[in-house]
Amino acid sequence: MIFESPRLIARRFDPRDLQPFVAMRNDPDVARFQSWSSFSDADGREFLNWVAPRKPGDIGWFQFALEHKQTGLFAGDCGLRILESDPRLAQIGYTIARAHWNKGYATEVVAALTSYAFASFPFHRITASVDPRNPASCRVLEKAGYVKEAHFRQSEWFKGEWADDVVYARLR
Questions:
Q1: Residues ≥6 apart with Cβ < 8 Å to 23
Q2: How far apart are CA 50 and CA 42, in angstroms?
Q3: Global confidence as pTM
Q4: CA pair distance 50, 163, nearest whole angstrom
Q5: Do residues 2 and 10 lie in contact, with contact meaning Cβ atoms separated by under 8 Å?
Q6: Which residues, listed in sequence order, are joined to residue 77 by a DSSP beta bridge?
Q7: Which H or E run contains 171?
Q8: Which residues are paired to 167 by β-bridges?
Q9: Any idea of the CA torsion for 120, 121, 122, 127, to the nearest 10 degrees?
Q10: What angle do CA 80, 16, 110 make, to 5 degrees?
Q11: Residues 6+ apart with CB under 8 A from 153
């Protein structure tokens, strides 16, 4: 375990996560606002190989597997990116498997990840980028204490069309 929320454990990915991780990423409802459209077993193995040598605190992204404390089931993942341009700045991301939606897990994990990040690293600012067509994700960030700072209109080429991008942030 690296950090935890009341109901979830954030830990390193391991081989047991391959199938539920691939299944989550192949769910069209989960992938709707994410950068991928489909995700193969080979993609999953490549991801596990990519994340295995990384550690929290490395420049770039580190992804945490999320495990439900009571059931031990894979519940999603979250990420922390330390910016290459300035290691006092970070970005977060999160994905919850659809079976765990509407239970408050995303808000829990964003709050716990943010607390962990500020306690473990000398960050001044943590941001999150979200598609405003995903109001549930916007609410997650707001409930976790993030403030909407910007709304960039048609600033991202996303899945064959221009999409808006909203940036939320928290300061130390």
A1: 97
A2: 12
A3: 0.94
A4: 29
A5: yes
A6: 65, 95
A7: strand 161-171
A8: 129, 150
A9: -110
A10: 25
A11: 164
